[in-house]
Task: structure prediction
Amino acid sequence: MTFLSKMTGLFSPKSKKNISLETKSDVKFRIVVVDFQDNIESSSGENTVRILQTMPDFEVRFFDEPFNKAFLNLESKTLFDMIDKGQTLIERTGADVLIWGCRDNDKIRLNFQTDKQYENKSQNFVSLLDSLYLPANLFNNPEDFPSAVKTLIHGAIISALHPTETSIRIHRKYLLKKDIANLSNDNSAKQLAINYMPFIMNFLGIIYLSCNFDSEDISDFKITQNLFTTAVKHQDLIDSPLHLGCIYYHLGQLNDSAASYQNKHQNRFFSDAVNAYHQAQRYLGKYTYPYDYALICYRLAHLFFNYWKKKEDIQALRDAVSQLREVEKIFSVAQFSEFWADIQKELGYYLSVLGNIVKSADIYQLAINCYQNQQKVITEKRDPIHWADSQERIGQLHYKIGIDRSNRDHLEDALECFHDALYIYENVSQTEKIKQLLIAISKTDNELRIL
Result:
């Protein structure tokens, strides 16, 4: 069986429609290919550049300065070296996507890295650990490279992108739709052996998920699910458990997205997402692949919190807090300062909601601690608006503790926080915020007079 015959049976007829949408044709994404780690004399890296240069969406550069690439073994003890080196190269070259290549016997393994990949909170589904294995001999002759495999690589790169500009996100989705349509009509890769099936199916699933994660059409969910489950069914062809972990991770992301965007069966999607995420963590463990493990915790936290909002299940809210606590242990302030600050903000919010439900001053104090942690990174001088937002939230929590415990010290702390935030908002003329704070100050003054 070839991967193509399996693929064409999984895509829906509508995915084969011609794409005629007008979009931004002048957009070029900067792709940097790092010279491959190879144990034989070959030009696989240079040939990959030649293949990518035939794609009009890319501006391609080859980076061939020598350095030790031992970390490309994807072992947990050297993973941070790979992340750190890749981040350095991205900053140096301005790459939108960095491509690592490594020979594994008669195969070439491709991995895709983007700027601050482990701090990206947008709907991006490509992990640095996601590995696309292809026959090494395909890279010997760029002119004869199968068009279906070329489209697959194109889709993998586009999926890895996480543009912030709305028009570029729309253009990205358009390109993914084109790739899906082209792949479902192209039989040029029919000679690929079945042992490449799980890796190709994983990336086909990523491409489809990246394009349709917000779709309300259940058929889009089923197609993507079939791609990932087909990859799992061929797990006997996967040598390393980390690759299986990535597939389960994406199954979790798929069901997670469906729980947000599908109108029916949300409880089932929630349950399936939790199960898939936990299954992924069996292979991407806390002590083996901590960053992917922590990102799964981060997604679980959001999943549990959204479930609490719909069902008012307090245990789901407690689980959301617990998952974020796991995340903050791994993404430290020293190495991931901005992401750590965001985690502290979210944790502060979750704890403040939980404290309000159970009427616990102790939990309010934990929330205050989190917001104050956020302010260690988001300082008044560096980012006054976000600092003022945290200061206002801290004031609200002090106010609640002060009311609950008839505690003058907390009310005075609340008053000070409100005045700090008011000063910032007055400087930028945020009228609504100024009104809110003046009301909060008045209420706090009245409570202090009563005490």
